[in-house]
Amino acid sequence: MSASTLIETDALVVGAGPVGLFQVFQLGLLGMSAQVVDALPEPGGQCVALYPDKPIYDVPGVPACSGRELAQRLLEQASPFLPRQADGQWASLHLNQRVASLRPTGDGRFELHTDHGQQFLARAVFVAAGAGAFVPRTLKMPGLALAPNVHHHLPAADATPAWAGQHLVVHGGGEEAVSAVLNLLAEAPERRPARLTLLHRRDAFQVDAELDAALREQLSLGSVQLALGLPDGAEYQQERPEEGLRSLRLLGADGQHHHLPLDHLLIRLGLSPKLGPLSEWGLTLERKQVAVSPDRFESSLPGVYAVGDINTYPGKKRLLLCGFHEATLAAHAAHAALHPDAPQHLLYTTTSPLLKARLGRG
Length: 362
Ligand SMILES: Cc1cc2nc3c(=O)[nH]c(=O)nc-3n(C[C@H](O)[C@H](O)[C@H](O)COP(=O)(O)OP(=O)(O)OC[C@H]3O[C@@H](n4cnc5c(N)ncnc54)[C@H](O)[C@@H]3O)c2cc1C
Prior knowledge:
By secondary structure, the protein is α/β, with parallel strands linked by helices. It has two domains: about 5-135 and about 270-360, 3-Layer(bba) Sandwich (FAD/NAD(P)-binding domain), CATH 3.50.50; about 140-270, FAD/NAD(P)-binding domain. The protein has helices at about 20-30, 45-50, 65-80, 175-185, 210-220, 320-340, 355-360, and strands at about 5-15, 35, 55, 65, 95, 100-105, 110-115, 120-125, 135, 150, 165-170, 195-200, 225-230, 230-235, 245-250, 255-260, 265, 270-275, 285, 290, 305, 310. The strands form six sheets. Strands 1, 2, 5, 6, 7, 8 and 21 form a seven-stranded mixed β-sheet that branches. A five-stranded parallel β-sheet has the order 10-17-11-12-13, with helices on one face. A three-stranded antiparallel β-sheet has the order 14-15-16, with no helix packed on it. Bound molecules: flavin-adenine dinucleotide (FAD).
């Protein structure tokens, strides 16, 4: 899909976290089309970005599932309304881009732009932005952002990793870095790097005892090498960052510099949420949260709803369950506002032929 196309939609959902995904499902049940945008390369929000392998025990009807499993289930549930194209890409899920601007058009609709130039014209907006757009923490070095062999995310399961068969350096000492190393080692041989180095400033990691033991075992087996030092300089191919990073300069504990040559660098220093442009959309904020009414979850700008961790109202709890409830009521409120003359009967998915047909189960 061309980045400059204007897409008209009933609803634009800002954020493909768990609440944004459930929002799409609820809108779909009510017959409303939705487009979704997320800054991250894969859907799932905090569940996938912060705790993919940790168990969640308090989702109703799901005694236990990991963050990644929950995201997969929400995607599957929303799939009738989030179709895939022939090439496997989602037709209405726009990843790796941030919604940068929101402007009422004056005819009851909203014009939104992403930082990749994608434009939307939406009849309602659902801000499901969590704590803001997740942006990876990175190394502050001139030129690094231009180097094509510097990465911050693991590739999707169906994409071939750029580093397959090459020397990959993973930088970080927390769970994101250590889990990445262990996950890389568990990959199919054709997806694995030929050589794997973990770079951290010291030989101690901020992870639980289980992860630490798993890493130590791989280090003792020699399947991953440990490089110690503080990266404070970069060398590029032909001295041009666009040609790729060639090596990192490390400051060792002995005060000496040495160089770490590499083919690819994967920086895993964690993610930090950036509220960013959202604060300029004219919505009333209270301590960086969008203030909403607790019956409609509508913001101070009529037609713009806020659901999940991004909103605040009396009694707010930042729990998945609460976000799902908010998405449900916000969808019904938006539907009633956009179709004031339509009957607003409550229908059950178990018994309504209309809902079953919308779900493709008629
Ligand atoms: C370690 C941990 C454990 C947790 N365990 C539990 C638990 O056991 N039970 C429970 O109920 N809750 C738990 N939570 C809380 C739960 O994860 C959150 O309540 C939930 O993720 C909120 O979902 P959300 O969709 O509102 O926001 P998020 O999951 O934060 O998703 C928001 C998404 O919006 C995107 N975004 C933001 N701004 C923009 C923009 N301008 N443009 C594009 N994209 C944007 C972000 O990149 C992000 O992907 C836990 C949280 C953490 C951190």
